[in-house]
Amino acid sequence: MHALDWGMVIGYFGLMVGIGWWSHRRVKTDKDFFIAGGRMPWWLAGISHHMSGYSAVLFVAYAGVAYSQGVTVYFWGFASIGVGVAIGAWLFAARWNQLRAKFGVASPLEFLARRFNIPTQQALAWSGASLKVFDVASKWFAVSILLESFAGVPILVGILVTGGVTLLYCTAGGLWADALTDFGQFVIQGLAGIVMIWAVLSSFGGISGLWTMWDRLPAGHLSPVTEDYTTVFLLVYVLVKTLEYNGGMWNLAQRYMASPDNHAARRGALLSSALYLIWPLVLMFPMFAAPLFVPGLEDPTTSYAAMTEKLLPAGMVGLVLAGMFSHTMAMVASDANAISAVITRDMLPVLWRKAREFGETQRLRAGRIATFSFIALSMLVATQADSLGGVLSIVVSWVAALMGPISVPLLLGMLPWFRRCGSRAALVSWAGGLITYAVLYYGVDASQTATVATPILVSLALFIGLGAVASERTDEIDEMLDVLDRAAKEKAPAVAR
């Protein structure tokens, strides 16, 4: 890379650290650190929700799918999220917000101890936190591949640099730093995306390339589904993403909890949904065009990096690379904050009696230590990502398949239709989904569609079925769900529309 490109990247890193240090002054308590004290504006919560949902995996693994199979990756990778978050704006956003406002919840799993019991809470906490270590590790690995492709920086150095910068600002400023850097990253990513699509369209002779390019692509590249990514896979992905992006992926629940009220939480969700449906098309248009610019690549995951270096002048390459960093750092900072909330408020008090007596200052310190430790551990695992199957295997086969069984009790446990489902249904559905995944992935080598679809369907069947035949309904559960249900049905005042 040119010196101008390096200057752009270094300036970006410096800006992120500066925002983190500024946010540090706004954090006085653990609730400020974990849920921004419930004071985050709806538009910032919406942008942060969006930016926290995808990473440099888009420019590596997903770019590889776009290069080899075409537009299918948009439909299952992002349109599914847009639809799922829109559903969540109606079903889940206000409920998460009211858990904070009415019940003092500051961790996505904190209400599970009351809704089910502590063993259920701990089972989901430990399994979800462990899965997130590998998920985040795949993000570090993906962004380090990009840095290696652009500048020849060794993968280990790339992991240390990007992870180290994220560790600094996330540990210092908590969710405020996370959300504010998300906004800055959104702007940078937007500039980078526009620069890249402008370069592609210029090569096509102008704006007409938006509609003349498609006939030149390889056969099958315009199909929403393919042999690998079937219609069933797409439909199950909508289900998985509805659960994952409305609280199953704990960090995104925090955006709803951080909003001032349930109406703001819902508006933030709708903004994020719209961004997921529209903005990935801008980012992915160059990926769809890649076979026309860099044909015959042995490794399709390098296609976006190869196009960038071919089409952009010095300085602009650094801007696009900073935009790629922004995705990863936004998601990882968000994950780290959510995991530290779960560790500090849900896991540590069970493991260590003294932690139950912590005051606000001690919980804040514990949260920062947990954030630091989680990011450091994920960086260590990232150095072994190749031996774990690579980026796409971790993100699709591991996370998509395992997040469902972890999400089912968490999300469905909020809804009044499942008030008969208690701790037995939660634990059996969770365990059944994980066992199903292990059998399919490691035992019978099932197809990708079966591996992703079956665990969540098994979990759903077990959770709903056990609730139907062996009710664990209690007055306390009814009272909690009724409060959440009233909040979800409450109409927004005219001034908020």
Please specify the SSE layout and strand pairing.
Blueprint: H1 3-24, H2 30-35, H3 42-51, H4 61-69, H5 72-91, H6 93-103, H7 112-115, H8 118-151, H9 155-203, H10 209-212, H11 231-248, H12 250-258, H13 262-293, H14 303-311, H15 316-351, H16 360-382, H17 390-412, H18 423-443, H19 448-469, H20 475-489
Helix pairs in contact: 1-9, 1-15, 3-9, 3-12, 3-13, 4-5, 4-13, 5-11, 5-13, 6-12, 6-13, 6-20, 8-9, 8-15, 8-16, 8-17, 8-18, 9-13, 9-15, 9-16, 11-12, 11-17, 11-19, 12-13, 12-15, 13-14, 15-16, 17-18, 17-19, 18-19
What does this structure look like?
The chain has helices at residues 3-24, 30-35, 42-51, 61-69, 72-91, 93-103, 112-115, 118-151, 155-203, 209-212, 231-248, 250-258, 262-293, 303-311, 316-351, 360-382, 390-412, 423-443, 448-469, 475-489. With 497 residues, the protein is mainly alpha-helical. The longest helix is centred in the middle third of the chain and has 49 residues, at 155-203. The protein is globular and about 65 Å long. The mean pLDDT is 82.
What is the number of E strands? 0
The quaternary organization reads as single chain
Distance between the termini: 48 Å
Order of helices and strands: HHHHHHHHHHHHHHHHHHHH
Query: Major sheet, described briefly?
Result: none
Low-confidence stretches: none
Pfam family, one: SSF
Subcellular location: Cell membrane
Keywords: Cell membrane, Ion transport, Membrane, Sodium, Sodium transport, Transmembrane, Transmembrane helix, Transport
Family: Belongs to the sodium:solute symporter (SSF) (TC 2.A.21) family.
